[in-house]
Design goal:
Number of strands: 20
Structural class: alpha+beta
Number of domains: 2
CATH class of the largest domain: Alpha Beta
Largest sheet: 8 strands, antiparallel
Number of helices: 12
CATH architecture of the largest domain: 3-Layer(aba) Sandwich
Strand content: 15-25%
Bound molecules: flavin mononucleotide
Helix content: 25-40%
Shape: globular
């Protein structure tokens, strides 16, 4: 297993203040506090687990990640933050600190945002375990990370904008990224209570730093390299609207959240399994979850239309018969496409993982890859997975805010899902599964 933490060694490391204020309570007093707050609620370590049989302890973070392998790195540039030098930084989650890789006025063409993140993926960190499928998980994780940043920023009172259309090699060069790190998404933070001053007018001074070696040996995955190279090419073409439809079940008004963002973001966990007994969730709770997942727009240069459609395997939702439903977000309606108990099917399709059958509701996210490719060329493949990850992050937090639990599921039998749901290639392909219910206690979890 490669080292789960990337460090750029030999550079100045700046402290981010511990225990930053709860988002939304009062504006951050200075730049370091603002950065600390943003990262504490989107990317920091938030708990640990201990394996009882071996005593092995490992860290868990605010943002989830397939297999807890965390291929995503957070780089950021700052311009004109108070009490914080302008420059280029890499977030060090293991110590909640920022590695200062350069000083000076960096800005990306067309952007004047005071903080700009570049999210990168280290595919090897996933590939050693998940092989070729790892590329998808890297993309999902970027979607989760981006949405984690967006939700933390919104709780603080700021807006974010994500850019997926850029020249990968130029960004990799401008940020002097280690060759194993691939830039995937640029996220600007702006329009809010960010403590700012005039940007520094100084020449750029590089420290760079030496990226740590993540493992002694590395196995090549040529198909991952090939798909990454193919999706470097982007072109904007025809953005077609998502198909619209309707269902016979109109969702009721959403149930209110019972837990605040600050609490939910820091305590969110993936359920190990769900209590498969009698306890059900309510239809207003489901309405709140589906609303959170789809209502607010994603603000990104590739988000002119949605590419994901949600299919639900309903097991235990009061007032909704067990079955498979398709969700039409524009009308807030569910369309029943299969009747009957779906617990065995949902678990079976999710690579035999019981949690998809023990949940109250499980999901297949169907991504319209063809339409995405018509709109964005092969790069559309990335965007569909980013959208799925971002929806996943919203599902996690909405479930927790309602007193439920959730788990993202990247492992499923693709072709069997298509057959079971009767999804034709023109409609899309399954890109992500999800489950929501009442979690069983996890004995490994340490506060
Ligand atoms: C893209 C993605 C795929 C995942 N796939 C699975 C899965 O198939 N089965 C599972 O039990 N957990 C899955 N998880 C949950 C991770 O194992 C979990 O996020 C990780 O262990 C970290 O724990 P945390 O979410 O509590 O921080 C997935 C998470 C993500 C983000």
């Amino acid at each position: 297993m490669p080292d789960p933490f990337r460090h750029y060694e030999g550079v100045p490391v700046l402290d981010l203040p511990a225990d930053p204020p709860v988002p939304g309570a009062s504006p951050a007093a200075d730049g370091p506090t603002f950065l600390s707050q943003l990262l504490f609620y989107s990317a920091a370590i938030s708990a640990s687990k201990r394996v009882p049989s071996t005593g092995f302890q490992y860290a868990l973070r605010v943002n989830p990640s397939s297999g807890n392998l965390h291929p995503t790195e957070f780089h950021f540039l700052t311009r004109g933050l108070t009490e914080w030098p302008d420059g280029l930084y890499h977030y060090r989650p293991s110590a909640h600190m920022a590695e200062q890789r350069a000083l000076g006025d960096f800005h990306l063409a067309g952007s004047s945002a005071p903080i700009v993140f570049v999210l990168t993926s280290i595919a090897w960190r996933e590939a050693w375990k998940y092989r070729d499928r790892a590329y998808r998980y890297c993309l999902h994780d970027i979607g989760h990370a981006r949405q984690a940043l967006a939700l933390a920023a919104r709780a603080i009172g700021c807006e974010t904008f994500a850019a997926g259309q850029f020249q990968d090699d130029e960004i990799a060069q401008a940020f002097r990224l280690s060759e194993d790190e691939w830039p995937m998404l640029i996220v600007e933070i702006g329009d809010g209570p960010i403590p700012v001053r005039e940007p520094d007018a100084r020449e750029i001074a590089w420290f760079g730093g030496h990226p740590n070696r993540l493992s002694e040996e590395k196995i090549a995955y040529p198909r991952i390299d090939a798909i990454h190279a193919a999706t470097k090419v982007s072109h904007l073409a025809v953005v077609e609207p998502a198909p619209s439809g309707s269902g016979e079940i109109k969702l009721p008004p959403p149930a209110p959240y019972i837990r605040a963002f600050s609490e939910v973001a820091r305590t969110r966990r993936s359920a190990l399994d769900f209590q498969g007994g009698m306890q059900s969730m309510s239809l207003p709770q489901l309405s709140a979850i589906l609303g959170a997942a789809t209502q607010q727009p994603f603000s990104a240069d590739f988000a002119g239309t949605r590419f994901i459609q949600l299919y639900l395997y309903v097991h235990r939702v009061d007032g909704l018969e067990p079955g498979v439903y398709r969700f039409w977000p524009e009308r807030g309606e569910l369309e029943k496409i299969k009747s009957g108990d779906q617990r065995v099917a949902a678990a079976g399709l999710s690579l035999g993982q019981d949690l998809a059958g023990n949940a109250c509701v499980a999901f297949s996210m169907i991504g319209d890859l063809e339409r995405a490719a018509r709109a964005h060329g092969d790069r559309g493949y990335r965007y569909v997975h980013f959208e799925a990850g971002a929806i996943g992050q919203r599902l996690y937090l909405a479930a927790e805010a309602l007193g439920l639990g959730a788990t993202g599921i990247g492992a499923f039998y693709d072709q069997e899902v298509h057959r079971y749901l009767n999804v034709q290639p023109a409609q899309g392909q399954v890109v992500y599964h999800f489950a929501i219910g009442y979690p069983v206690p996890d004995p490994r979890l340490q506060a």
